[in-house]
Amino acid sequence: MMEAAAPSGTPFVAADGRNLKACADGECEVLVRTGDQVPNDGGAGPLAVTVQAGKVGLAPASGGMGGAVSGPPGMVHQINRQVIAVVTVQGDEGIVRLNRK
Fold this sequence. Notes:
Elements: E1 28-33, E2 37-38, E3 47-52, E4 55-60, E5 69-71, E6 76-79, E7 82-90, E8 93-100
Antiparallel strand pairs: 1-8, 2-3, 3-4, 4-5, 6-7, 7-8
């Protein structure tokens, strides 16, 4: 089972940092900001990112609404073979973890 949220006092650091290309294989943990596009091969296609009001939103970068998700830290959602977890959010940045199922 995946860890959903970072405990209080945990440094705001993603395993892959800001290297969004690390998600190309559908497996990563990255720091995201509004406007980022996260590539992945986990079945969800490239994802456009929004971070606001303590939530991270991810939607197909193609603009379609199918598969769009948004949630606070702890949110875990599966789109096709891609499992997406919001690890934590601070201000206008969030950490998301992608895993292939």
